[in-house]
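fwd from M.: "can u put these together and see what the complex looks like"

so here's what she sent:
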Amino acid sequence: MALSKSRKLLVLLAVLVVVHVVFLFVRPTGASAARSPSDVNVGIVFDLGGRGDKSFNDGAYVGGTRAERELGARVRFIEPGDGSDRESGLRLLAAEGMDLVIGVGFIFTDDLTQLAKDYPRTNFAGIDFAVATDPAGNPIAPPPNVAALKFREEQGSFLVGALAALESKTKKLGFVGGMDSPLIVKFEAGYRAGVKEVCPQCTVLVGYAGVTPEAFRNPGKGKELALSQYGQGADIIYHASGSTGLGVFEAARQTGHLAIGVDADQYAEAPGHVLTSMVKGVDEAVFDVIKLVKEHRFRGGIYQLGLAEHGVGYVYDAQNRGLIPDSVRSRLEALRGEIVAGRIYVPSTR
Amino acid sequence: MMPTPGAPAIRLTDIHKSFGPVRANRGASLEVMRGEIHALVGENGAGKSTLMRALSGMYAPDSGRMEVADADGILHEVTGWSTAEAIAAGVGMVHQHFMLVSTLTVAENLMLGAELTKDGALRVLDTARAAREVDALSQRTGLRVNALQRVSELSVGEAQRVEILKALYRGARTLILDEPTAVLSPPEVAELWQVLRHMRARGETIVLITHKLDEVMSISDTVTVMRHGRTTARLRTADTTPPEIAREMVGRDVVLATEMRQDAAMAGEGWAVARDGESVAPASDARSLGTSSFPLPALEVRVLAVGNARRTRAVDDVSFSISPGEILGVAGVEGNGQTELIEAIAGFRQVRSGSILLDHRDITHTAVRARGQAGLSHIPEDRHARGLVLDYSIAENLILGQQHRFARGGFLNTLDGDRIADNARRQIAAFDIRPNDPTLPARALSGGNQQKIVVAREMGRDFRVLLAAQPTRGVDVGAIEFIHAQLRGARDAGKAILLVSADLAEILALSDRVAVMYGGRFVVVLPRAQASESVLGPYMTGAEEAA
Amino acid sequence: MSSSGEVAREASIRSQTAPRSGAVWIRLEESLLPSLVALLVAAIVGDILIVVFGQSPGAVYRLLLEGTWGNSYGFGQVLYKATTLTFTGLAIAFALRAGLFNIGAESQLAAGGFAAATVGLALPPGLPWIATLPVYVAAAALGGGIVGGTAGVLKARFGAHEVITTIMLNFVVLALLSYLTAAHLNVPETLHTTEIRSGALPRFSDFFASFHGSAVNVVLLLAVLACAGAWWYLFHTRRGFELRAVGLQPEAAEYGGVRPGVVWTRAMAISGAIAGLGGLNFVLGYKHYYEEGFAGGAGFLGIAVALVGGTHPLGAALAALLFATISQGGLAVNALVPKQFVEVLQAVVIIAVAVSVPEVRRMIRAQRKRA
């Protein structure tokens, strides 16, 4: 005599309940071991991309873990699931009484501004925090407990521009931007200035993938632009275009030319074809701001992180050393010194 | 129990099977002897198919004993087996809806699941050998097929032969056929009977599920009757009569007059002609007088051409008119344009040329809803696809197409639940729809009662012209009787009816005039008095083109 | 003789309808059990994942509940997320009732939000929300409705499959909105428009202080109204009757005098309008500006909401609460398990429900047959 279908389901349900309840009492060794209290408690909320983006979020993670190691800080990371989780994540961390809460990415700007008002005694920091301007064009200072960590991308771009011009045989260079916007124009302007500094007769070909954020996610368009620039005689292309740049690397590999990466070390995208990368020191910035909090020196305000502050730089390591002769390297370091000393001014607009 | 030659091949005892609240079998028993053709009859929903599906391994019965004889004739008990096990034990079932892969050949379909392969690591399919085996089997059984033809190119009758072959190919000694004639034309039926007799002569056992009593009488040795999930009688065909079987099926004494008409409806030509001659005579007279005296035919179709997916002229310049109080029967093998004709008149198939007039108003290009409001009712040929929304309740189905009449006005057009319920109660009572719970989904009803919903909806309101396409297909005896009475009543009340049926007996039983449709044309139109199966047959097969 | 036959028949009819008293319980059991089994299976898969991550399932689930239903801020966030999901889930369920798979809820949601924002930017600042709400509702419904209706028209007129067209419209519409925002409306260095200064909707925290900080706002009430309205429309109006008939059996509906093309167009327009209303939750209830990408994921999660909710308006609301809880809970337990835990859990819920709930199975089969 077979059981009726719903009786069978009832039995199955009972079995499942038992299994679930048993699981609730499973306690793997080392589970949620209480962490030792620390005098610096830090919360970091990633952007939607989350860990593994090989760029900002990973940089913030590296900075945070280094702070745990070297400063004894206790760092909690939150990966949001959707847009409203950004504020929610910040709020959860602030409510837990963190000494410092960091939002990774300009998209956190409004959320941080809001939270800073709700939690005036908590310190906040925003990577790439977008500083608003008044109608006259002057920057409006963020709330006093918010550190706006901005990078002087034009300075890093200046150095890779100089490097590209020194390495170029055709005296033609390329630039591929993502969305045509003031943020990316900073990269272009610094790059152009760097090229002109060491090679006044060099020309720079410029292309943008579009005028919407979609332009940062369009490798096909990136490849098209890069192939066109290589076709016109450019032999090195610098991109500042998010994942659109993957198309630039693809074009470099296909035509046997060189490309320059951005934000993080992108050598692995096309080994042998990546001359260097203009890196933003998100890890340094995160580490430094945590250090400021630990040392009770934290102040709100706008932090412009340039070459002097190790906020930007270029990659020179075992992988690409062979592509960069020592003479070129020393010329670049000399330029760096000039900029840090203020003897060279790098423009950030066209 | 009466003596039956041979030993039992199948013995089912006290089988029970429920689907949720529906008790399909409640104590059904069946004994089938080796080498006989055993008819299993009953109204739709009596539990015939359920019982046979249990035997063929598709469902496990809730309780009861199933015994099947092996090749040596020894009975073994089986409990809730699978179709594969049933096939292995020599029980094969041919379903109403064919289970063939239309893009494969006949031989490939037969091999499916038991593929022949060549020796070697690759196990390449040996299609040549399969074709040879199919040919040999075809010769042995008299089931003629072309092993290399694609199933999609077969006629319905041929596809059915392939299904039978498939069962035999896998070693079936007992063959169950579920309503095999529902889809066949008269010549194809005759051919099927020949095949079955041939198989019986070779000692194979056949169970034939049917509700057509003429089939029972002409082919079976023994009859088991089912009613409400139980087996109610086991009779020797030679010792019984159609009225007796009908009584067992319906479960009540049938009044003589009704019984006669019922016989006419379901039985072969002889009865139909005799009965019909009497019952339709007055109306026929009225019509023959009226053809000229009715200036306005209720439905008029003028040189109508309609296309379908394959042919641009599935209906090829057909013209006819039907007067109030007349039934025009359209006979013909299915697929000769009847469906397209009905759909064009009903309004869901584009007309290529020609016109359709209802009460002299041109409705050729009006919407379905407008045609309904103009007085057109329609019993569609496929109640499962068109006639009913199977997941809608009986009450909801009873307003399908008339939902406007049950909506309160205003922006929201809220449906008036009370009036819908009232309507349902009235129609359920008037048309004896069972079960009588208006909230049950149409899906839960037997075929006959489903069709009664359609009939109630289409005929239980004011209308001028009725399109009745296959109105009794797959419907039990009691419901056939009822639907035929409704059609006659409507005709007598002055309605014009276009009746399309694949069942020639039905056409002859009801029509005042008979048209035969072949290749998209009306090849002949005859007054009922001049029509008979022998006269119409050649037109139906296209052997005779006329007029 | 015949009268006794009558009696017998009466009796048999009664015996067929007799087991009614237990029927309610049976029906309840049959409809609830499969869902419960599915949810438990999902919970157990979650258990296994948590153990794999080296944590204790008991602790993680406790934290998850505490972070969602356990405090008013978390609960408010659950309600906020459920609001958007209710709109997209309801939109998809509504279209499914007409037999249409609306994959485009994401772009319809974005279009609704964008339309509301555009209207809001044009309105004089400082108007009270009660006065402006009807305008915003109309704008959002129109924005989403146009996008949805386009897919409906393409299907009705040209037979283009709605799955293809709604996916394509996602790309087209999101790119277009992105362009309009970036090129004409945005605040420099951000992805959003300037702030709308008229008719910002009150948050629950304005009435109940304990919700402080949570974005849940009066659009939640609109979502409840939308569910009730959709339910009434589907099950109590003539057009709903026709719409469901088209969804179940288009041929039978056509037979019943319904033109499926008209119903498809109308159903997609309404579906799009419902999704579009969801845009108000973010644009007017939360941030007071349109932000590029705010709709991300809500369209696809809406499919899950519609399926798990059995394509019933009430079911969609409950399923939206479930998925919102998982989503917000994922944030709360993020310290112990990575975000992927939540994504896997959501996927397992969807699969388990799809496999075990008969209605969903039947619907998926019907879809496949039609596609």
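replying to her w this: Residues 1-5, 254-295 of chain B have pLDDT under 50 and may be disordered.
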